[in-house]
Amino acid sequence: TVEQFASAKILQMKVGRSSIWTAVRSPHGLMVDCIYLAAKRNGMKVSAIKMRNLTLELFGVGTQPRPSVWQNAFKELIEEYV
């Protein structure tokens, strides 16, 4: 939904601008991670493979979500925005 996408975008901006963000993901990769987290938390059946295929179809570059790389450091933001 638009609301879920908006919450994912807000999360991406908050994480990306955080002083503890170490840029372990590109802005594009971070957005894919945030969309993936929002979908999962809202009960949507989504997989990393499905996300990779969808981003490949939409953008010509397949990006696999990897929120496990950074999500532990941002649990509070994830809870607040997703």
Helix content bin: 55-70%
Q: Would you tell me the structural class of the helices and strands?
A: mainly alpha
Average residue pLDDT: 93
Largest sheet: none
Can you count the helices?
4
> Terminal Cα separation, in Å?
12 Å
Main attributes?
mainly alpha, 0% strand
Task: Give the topology, please.
Layout: H1 2-16, H2 27-41, H3 48-59, H4 75-81
Describe the protein.
Helices cover 60% and strands 0% of the residues. It has four helices and no strands. Helix 1 packs across helix 2 (27-41). The protein is globular and about 35 Å long. The protein starts with a helix and ends with a helix. The model has no long low-confidence stretch (mean pLDDT 93).
Quick structural overview:
By secondary structure, the protein is mostly helical.
